[in-house]
């Protein structure tokens, strides 16, 4: 990508080709998002005004963003934010970039709540950007939530995301070691813990391996160590009838379901993401709520 771009159309085609040549999976989408960000345009302005002229200075700014993506830096990292569920999340180096698969956890919880206006108390272990907790709070107007993360930077980022989405009055974020030391019971406990086996991290896609924080990926030798910790803590964290919903990696659902059953949870089920992968294990503590 070099030289001036006379029009938005030419810039977009050039960006798409550069990303296609670099092996990026979604070159058309990524090129559009980077152009929108680099030029400060809306999607409609990019799509509906293809002959709009672009100055060389602006084109150079976009080309620099495209080169970062060609080097396999994720679009969300480049633009500094990512859409998730119905909210927008700012990203920092301390946080995992939320993925659409994680919305399965949100759906799993909402499907079991008979009254979305109830004053529920939510807990998110390993909260990262706060994506799961904040998405749920956006759907549950009278709920409050606590997010825990071992990373102080992640806890601060989640608090900023709560403010960004008008949820700061109902969400608190703290550093901690999973559920250790927490008092009281929660109606819902959710988590997307690290679940990649340590030996598999080197083989991950560069967008993940090189840009997501290692401690948000590494689940120990078999990828299941965080689930063992959470499963031991759940009986003391869940209110009677409370719901637990955990994201899992491919092939892990059966073992995580066994861990939850061993911890005393019942009504255990496994939910698939849009790609058909078993992505969430869900269970209850005792009798249903209400």
Automatic annotation (TrEMBL):
**InterPro entries given in the database record:** DNA_methylase_N6_adenine_CS, HemK-like, Methyltranfer_dom, N5-glutamine_MTase, PrmC_N, RF_methyltr_PrmC, SAM-dependent_MTases_sf
Q: In which domain of life is the source organism classified?
A: Bacteria
Keywords, in A-Z order: Methyltransferase, S-adenosyl-L-methionine, Transferase
What GO biological process terms are annotated to this protein in UniProt? methylation
- List each copy of the Release factor glutamine methyltransferase N-terminal domain by range: 11-80
Q: Using the record's annotation, list all stretches that form the Methyltransferase domain.
A: 120-207
Q: List the catalytic activities from the record.
A: L-glutaminyl-[peptide chain release factor] + S-adenosyl-L-methionine = N(5)-methyl-L-glutaminyl-[peptide chain release factor] + S-adenosyl-L-homocysteine + H(+)
User: Annotated Gene Ontology MF terms?
Assistant: nucleic acid binding; peptide chain release factor N(5)-glutamine methyltransferase activity
Q: Where on this chain does S-adenosyl-L-methionine bind?
A: 126-130, 149, 178, 192
Is Methyltransferase one of the keywords? yes
Enzyme Commission number(s) of this protein: 2.1.1.297
Binding site residues for substrate: 192-195
The family line of this record is: Belongs to the protein N5-glutamine methyltransferase family. PrmC subfamily.
**Which NCBIfam families did the record assign?**
hemK_fam (TIGR00536), RF_mod_PrmC (TIGR03534)
Biological role: Methylates the class 1 translation termination release factors RF1/PrfA and RF2/PrfB on the glutamine residue of the universally conserved GGQ motif.
Can you say what this protein is called?
Answer: Release factor glutamine methyltransferase
């Amino acid at each position: 990508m070099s030289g001036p771009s006379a029009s938005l159309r030419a810039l977009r085609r050039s960006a798409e080709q550069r990303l296609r040549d670099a092996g990026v999976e979604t070159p058309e989408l990524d090129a559009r998002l980077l152009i929108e960000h680099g030029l400060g345009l809306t999607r409609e302005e990019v799509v509906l005004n293809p002959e709009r002229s672009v100055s060389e200075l602006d084109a150079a700014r976009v080309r620099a963003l495209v080169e970062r993506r060609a080097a396999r830096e994720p679009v969300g990292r480049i633009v500094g934010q990512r859409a998730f569920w119905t909210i927008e999340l700012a990203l920092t180096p301390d946080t995992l970039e939320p993925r659409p698969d994680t919305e399965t956890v949100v759906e799993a919880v909402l499907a079991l709540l008979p009254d979305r206006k109830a004053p529920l108390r939510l807990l998110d272990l390993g909260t990262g950007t706060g994506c799961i907790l904040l998405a749920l709070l956006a759907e549950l107007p009278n709920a409050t939530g606590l997010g825990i993360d071992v990373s102080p930077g992640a806890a601060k980022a989640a608090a900023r995301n709560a403010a960004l989405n008008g949820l700061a009055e109902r969400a608190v974020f703290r550093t901690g070691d999973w559920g250790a030391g927490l008092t009281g019971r929660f109606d819902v406990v959710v988590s997307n813990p690290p679940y990649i086996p340590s030996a598999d991290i080197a083989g991950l896609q560069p967008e993940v391996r090189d840009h997501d924080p290692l401690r948000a990926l590494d689940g120990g030798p078999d990828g299941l160590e965080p689930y063992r910790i959470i499963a031991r803590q759940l009986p003391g964290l869940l209110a009677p009838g409370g719901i637990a919903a955990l994201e899992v990696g491919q092939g892990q659902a059966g073992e995580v379901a066994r861990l939850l059953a061993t911890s005393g949870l019942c009504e255990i089920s496994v939910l698939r993401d849009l790609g058909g992968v078993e992505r969430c294990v869900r269970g209850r503590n005792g009798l249903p709520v209400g």
